[in-house]
Each structure stands twice: as structure tokens, then as C-alpha cells.
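Q: what sequence does this backbone want?
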């Protein structure tokens, strides 16, 4: 488990990266928002959740693609590495990361892979979804089974336990002839295929919400900086966390990543 001092250093580096990403998005007119625990931290704590060790943002797919181009041209490559399926051959997640160079934050699930293992920020694309409920379910099912097989084959089996280990083992055997790159490409193609609609979601099927939510973002205080959050953040947070204003029990206030190696070398 990370100490309070280590967590403070981690959050300082992540904040530096987050502020830089905010600058690039504003400079190029890209719509983004804080997401997941980072959004919850902004609203409930005015910054990081005290025990959180990662950062999440989300962008509509079109802006997500543009951000890739912007970062390729303008992100400081001495400090950061933009990680995607295109820039890191053994990276097969369906969303991108920006890694902080000269740091090590190696998770058990990804430990066997020769990828950049630095401290990171997650970047999630938000895709349009079919408005018809049954079409959405069909679309979601096709996407989800590819993603589940991809993760079963990609993530370190030794990091799974119990039913998750058994399920991953079974999927690996059933789909042993499927290539990771093919599964990832098929899943991403499905996530992109729905036309513009009033409904959208992250990873093609999760966290379904109104497209309007991301179209209306406002600045919000986050650790002394103004960062973008949905104007209707309460709808999204209630959907994700229920009573999001209530703190979890003390026993649950822990970092969520299973680390096998950790080191911070950069000077703050």
C-alpha cells in the first residue's frame, strides 16, 4: 500500500499532467471532462479523492482522435509518453493513457507486457449509441464479448482470482486462435459505428448517458485549478456511484491498483 507521502507525490505529478492536458484541450477547442473518480473528487473534495492514485478524463470520439494528433505534435515528449495501440505495440486497451516518463507504476495485470509502465492518466473516448433500446443491447453485446475476450487474453492471468481467474482461463482456451490486435480492432470499430444520436457511452456500452451532458461543461475548482466537468454532473455521478456525496467506510478508503513495482524519479 502506498504511504500518504507517496500518494501526495503521485497526485502532484498527475495534477501537473492534468493541467497541461487542460491547456492543450482549451487551446485547440477540444471538449473534455473529468471522469469517474476524478470527477467525483472534484465535486466532493475540490480535488483528488484523498486516497485516489489515478486520473480519468473523457472526450467525445471526434475530440479524442484530435487529441491524439495534438499530443503527437505538442505534448512534451521528454516528460510524457502518449500510450495507445498505435504508439506502444504491446498495449491493447481500448482507451489511451498518457504516461509520465522516469516513473514506474507497474500493475500486476499488465506486468508481463513490454510497455511503458509509468504513472499515468486515462483518456476515455465517448461514443454514440443506438437510441433504440434493443439495438443498443445488441450493439453492446457484440462489443462486450470482444472486449471480455480481449481482456481475458491480455491481462496477466496470475492477477486474477476465483471466478474471474476461471472465466479468463476458459475464454483463453475457447478463443486461443484469436489475435489480440484483431479483437481490439473489431471492438473499436463497433464502438465507432453508431451514427450521431442523443445517447452516448464510454467504451461503446458502459455508463450510458445523454449526449447533452458532455456538450454542456463548466469550469470547476480542482486542487487550485479550473478544470472542466459536466454542468449536469449530478446525473452522471448518481448513476455511477449512487449517493456520491457520502464518503465510504474507512476500511474502503484505499488505492485500487495492485502494484508489483513503484518508483518516482522525477523531481517535482
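A:
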Amino acid at each position: 500500500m502506498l504511504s500518504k507521502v507517496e500518494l501526495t507525490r503521485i497526485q502532484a505529478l498527475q495534477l501537473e499532467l492534468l493541467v497541461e492536458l487542460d491547456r492543450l484541450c482549451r487551446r485547440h477547442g477540444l471538449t473534455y471532462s473529468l471522469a469517474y473518480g476524478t470527477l467525483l473528487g472534484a465535486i466532493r473534495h475540490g480535488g483528488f479523492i484523498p486516497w485516489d492514485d489515478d486520473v480519468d478524463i473523457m472526450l467525445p470520439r471526434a475530440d479524442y482522435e484530435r487529441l491524439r494528433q495534438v499530443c503527437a505534435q505538442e505534448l512534451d515528449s521528454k516528460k510524457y509518453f502518449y500510450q495507445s495501440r498505435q504508439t506502444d505495440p504491446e498495449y491493447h486497451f481500448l482507451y489511451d493513457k498518457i504516461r509520465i516518463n522516469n516513473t514506474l507504476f507497474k500493475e500486476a495485470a499488465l506486468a508481463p507486457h513490454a510497455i511503458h509502465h509509468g504513472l499515468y492518466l486515462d483518456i476515455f473516448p465517448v461514443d454514440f449509441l443506438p437510441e433504440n433500446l434493443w439495438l443498443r443491447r445488441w450493439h453492446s453485446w457484440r462489443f462486450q464479448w470482444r472486449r471480455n475476450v480481449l481482456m481475458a487474453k491480455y491481462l496477466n492471468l496470475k492477477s486474477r482470482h476465483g471466478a474471474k481467474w476461471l472465466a479468463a482461463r476458459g475464454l483463453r482456451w475457447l478463443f486461443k486462435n484469436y489475435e489480440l490486435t484483431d479483437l481490439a480492432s473489431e471492438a473499436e470499430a463497433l464502438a465507432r459505428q453508431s451514427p450521431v444520436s442523443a445517447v452516448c457511452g464510454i467504451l461503446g456500452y458502459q455508463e450510458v448517458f445523454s449526449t447533452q451532458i458532455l456538450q454542456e461543461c463548466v469550469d470547476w475548482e480542482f486542487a487550485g485549478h479550473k478544470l472542466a466537468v459536466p454542468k449536469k454532473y449530478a446525473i452522471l455521478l448518481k448513476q455511477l456511484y449512487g449517493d456520491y456525496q457520502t464518503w465510504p467506510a474507512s476500511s474502503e478508503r484505499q488505492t485500487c491498483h495492485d502494484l508489483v513495482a513503484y518508483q518516482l524519479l522525477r523531481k517535482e
